Amino acid sequence: MNKLDNLLERSRQQLVGMDPEKAVHFDEKAKRKWWKDREEVDEGLGKLVEETEEMLTKENEDISDFFGEVEDEEGEEEGEEEGEGEEEVAVGNLSNRFEAACKLEDEEGDEDQEEDVCLDSLTVPALKNKILQVGGGKDDMKGLKKAGLKELLNKFMTAKKKSTAKPTAKPTAKPTVTTTTTTTKSTKKKTKATILVLDERLHRLPWEGFACFENTSVYRVPSLPFVVAPIVEGRSTVISRRDCTYVLDPEGNLPSTKKTMQPIFKSYSSRFSWREKGVVGKIPNEAFFADALQKDGGLMIYCGHGGAEHCFSRPQVENLLRDGRRTCESTVILMGCSSGRMSAGGGSTRGVGSNFKLLPYEADGTVTSYLCAGSPCIVGNLWDVTDKDIDKFFINFLAEFFEGNRDIASCVAGSRSVCKMKRVVGFAPVCFGVPITFGEDNE
Predict the structure, then answer these.
(1) pTM above 0.85, yes or no
(2) 184-438: which CATH number, 3.90.1010.10, 1.10.3720.10, 3.40.640.10, 3.40.50.1460?
(3) Residue 400, pLDDT above cutoff 90
(4) Which one, out of 268, 344, 411, 429, has a CA that is 20 to 30 A from the CA of 202?
């Protein structure tokens, strides 16, 4: 984690005190140096994510072994009508697999007893170790589950006895991942998503940047009850294009974002007949924010600094949990710096020091308050970002989400590539909670 922390701290230092007025006074040499440093951080983060994914999967090329398995597509098609209207959840223990990938136990047995091995008793990692020992390669094992690995091991062992050449490597298969499949009652359309249940260590990594998750709907939660609760409470995962509102530049110090986003919000408000007007250039009153958050099927958009704490504090959000009822029902988009950042020690939002952040407490942040208060889904940034690049991301995201028929995380994933800094900015926006989509009409 030290490499990640160093890269993010370097990125943060690059952004300290940066504003349009300061940038105007940069000469060409200073600008080139700043962009060169920025590109180095971006490339460093990309390399770190690639290395992390490779490290976690080097003994498990089939991603289904790492994240858990679900039924194949044919099995899903056969039972599609029977399961209509229900939620299917397959859960993989990411934390245990994370540790196992870092240090695998030696389960291979006695190397001199290969011919007497009972293949049925071997685990997937042990089968792969055996294949490597008898001359197989990692490419041979890609896409294979246990039955295929047993067959491959038998093939190599037979070939070794006959002293024949190695067989040709099999083509790789697209890996499967742990998924949640939700069928919405209004659209009858299935939304497939991966939900990561992340502990105080794993939440810091930008898992959404892994190659296996490219253009995939990925959501994260601190614990499994945040996935189950909306189902138990009977909350809708479909929101209305009309019940949207926004807060733009409430502190009045993001002129570029205001200039870029205000006409876009006005356009969407007119096209989809938004019932509520947005607030621009000033901090809204408490009632405005509270009402916006308590709309069933609503969408609350915030474009400003942080996680909107200056407009509506965490205690105010948590007050929406009343008498055991979670009254925050809107999906929330927080486009400020580090709005989705969570700290195992409470972080700066609780006024604690860096040493306390390293203690093994449960991860906590602004998004935790929204999840506890009842919001089904929150979009936030894991770390600090530059305004123009995140605005570019957000414009593309709004177009895909409002004008398409895809879930919110899919649109987040599809918009990362438009950023100039595709990793240090593109990997920052993530989704917390459960899959959310717009209804088919504007009602």
Answers:
(1) no
(2) 3.40.50.1460
(3) yes
(4) 411
